[in-house]
Amino acid sequence: MKIVRTIEDMQQQVQELKAQNLSIGFVPTMGFLHEGHMSLMEEAKKHNDIVVISIFVNPLQFGPNEDFDSYPRDFERDEKIAEQLGVDVVFYPSVDQMYPKPLSIKMTVTDRTNVLCGRSRPGHFDGVATVLTKLFHIIQPSRAYFGLKDAQQVAVVDGLINDFNFPIELVPVPTVREEDGLAKSSRNVRLTPEERKEAPNIYKTLQVAKEWIADGERDTNKLTDRLFASLETTISGSIDYLEILSYPELGNIDSVDGKIIIAIAVKYSNVRLIDNIIIDVA
Amino acid sequence: MKIVRTIEDMQQQVQELKAQNLSIGFVPTMGFLHEGHMSLMEEAKKHNDIVVISIFVNPLQFGPNEDFDSYPRDFERDEKIAEQLGVDVVFYPSVDQMYPKPLSIKMTVTDRTNVLCGRSRPGHFDGVATVLTKLFHIIQPSRAYFGLKDAQQVAVVDGLINDFNFPIELVPVPTVREEDGLAKSSRNVRLTPEERKEAPNIYKTLQVAKEWIADGERDTNKLTDRLFASLETTISGSIDYLEILSYPELGNIDSVDGKIIIAIAVKYSNVRLIDNIIIDVA
Fold this sequence. Notes:
The structure is a homodimer.
Chain A: E1 2-4, H1 7-19, E2 24-29, H2 35-47, E3 50-55, H3 75-84, E4 89-91, H4 95-98, E5 105-109, H5 124-139, E6 143-147, H6 151-163, E7 169-173, H7 193-198, H8 200-214, H9 220-234, E8 238-246, E9 258-267, E10 272-281
């Protein structure tokens, strides 16, 4: 497994791989790899000749009051995990490599951001779109892998790739779950034992939504109200949002029709959990 | 020579060319090809296995009061010129192909635009950056060719390619000139005989600037004032701007040092002429 720290070296590697017509599967990460990332790497490994991951904590996607400096980093551990999973190249650039000077062009994600988690993170997805544009150009992957746990990110990347015709296939990978249904997250350890016990009710509520829709309910307001009321009684945390939107456009809809997302965020004492399901309603 | 009208067909062509490791030289145009374009195509032909040109009048780079609808179009003539010059593929998409729906991400060129022609064309370079990003992804060229007559456009594309790490070499091509030095332009026919006779003084003024700098003058204010006064006496048109800036950053400079551009725009009765030289001052 190669560790590549400069853009120039990475471009050199990519050029050699491209000359051999090898397909590249790319998993962009901010490091501190967990099972979610592992499922992405495994998926990339299955369908590509070469797997490249990037580890880069991107300052551009952190707000001024967010935790860029304290964001967890452990490159040695990440390196071992990547090696075990058969990753071929780890692109691990410094901030100076990626942003040697201020950018002359600003990317602003104007759609799909003013809902769900985006509402409380202005500018976050602008930073995501910017760094991904750079990484996509440096790595030139055939396929790029993103976890559906952050479905809004997948939706924004879908917009980026389609609107700007990147020659890249976006592969959304299903959320990895605990046996009781709770979406896996490195943040779950911050739950108290009581909170951990009731947290699977978030996913259960999403399953209930699916049933109600299957039973014929189409009114998003009614669904949202009923689901909110139902979830509220089963958890001690406070519901940050419970939204039903079109997918991947993330537009408000009066009636459930076609591809939709049901997404929930719950605030607990020391952690905020998110989960969602995407379903196609005929 | 192939005429390709859809993004899908173009991507298919590109994939086949890439699989054979052929280099692609790309000349983006808005059609109505003239000698400036021809020099770009000839240059592309010399250094690449395949030459692709695009003909697309991009609505996004026209302001609300600009001439998108009346912009000259003559595809049959363009086709003949391209064929004669040995172009391999003409990408000729419709507006619906390029912009099937509103974009979810906006690109804003924040640097290099508030000078020269950009000052009077707000949003113009945002549209240029957007369409080029799309075209670069669709064509995947090894090299992209731009005429230095529009040096500000070259500077913006330099920013786009470098800041976002496009795997593309930007090739700026020198301005093609009449024997008397006047920069060639399809708009020159709109000059009256008297205007045509004096118009070469624009280029002569740029040459004088070069001499003065060679003679040791470094003060940009002094140079600008002297050049303005000198040009003013030799033309009947009005000087729209005469600027000395760093290149490609297009920043204001007190003193001439390193790579700089001297650019002039002159308004005549029915046409506005632009010209520039870029020099490296040791």
